[in-house]
Amino acid sequence: MTLTKASVVIASTNPSKLSKFYSLVIDSSVSEGFTEHDYELRMQGGCQISFYKPTSKRESCRISPPSLAICFQKKPSSDPESDIANWVNELVSYGGRLIDGPIVESFGVEAWMIDQEDNKFMIFVPFITS
Fold first, then answer.
1. Which comes out higher in pLDDT, residue 65 or 108?
2. Of 39, 57, 37, 34, residue with least CA distance to 104
3. pTM for the structure as a whole
4. In degrees, to the nearest 5, what angle opens at C-alpha 9 toward C-alphas 109 and 94?
5. For residue 63, which of 31, 77, 100, 102 is within the disulfide window of CB 3.0 to 4.6 Å?
6. DSSP 3-state of 55
């Protein structure tokens, strides 16, 4: 499985409003993300900013996703749980640490990792949609 894209993710209590604000900042239009609560801005050159409402499936407040982070996304999969588990194991072998998840959502599976310098980042594998 190869890396398909990297983007910036911004956690928000109101992703619609925040994405509209940033669309004015960068003069770009807002598009829908994976759910009705997620939005994206795409800029020339391929850069993407995703605005999302953090998962409600988090079991505790021990780990909070940062309000701004890099998200690495693999290609959509019919078995994203297995794919992300393999990816987590690979990243751990390189010195990363799993800090939250994997969490299964209706649109895919996410996990939060931390690198060797304590920077949090998200990894994500979406479900294949027909």
1. 108
2. 57
3. 0.68
4. 65
5. 100
6. coil
Selected from 3.10.180.10, 3.10.129.10, 3.40.50.300, 3.40.630.30, the CATH number assigned to the domain covering 3-126 reads 3.10.180.10
Q: What ranges in the chain are assigned the alpha helix state H?
A: 15-26, 80-93
Paired sense of beta strands 97-105 and 68-74, if any: unpaired
pLDDT digits 0-9 by tens, 70-120: 888 888 899 999 999 999 998 898 888 999 889 998 888 999 988 877 878
Please, what is the average pLDDT of the chain? 80
Residue 66 pLDDT exceeds 80: no
Contact 111, 97 (CB under 8 A): no
107: Cβ contacts below 8 Å, ≥ 6 apart: 34, 35, 126, 127
SS3 89: helix
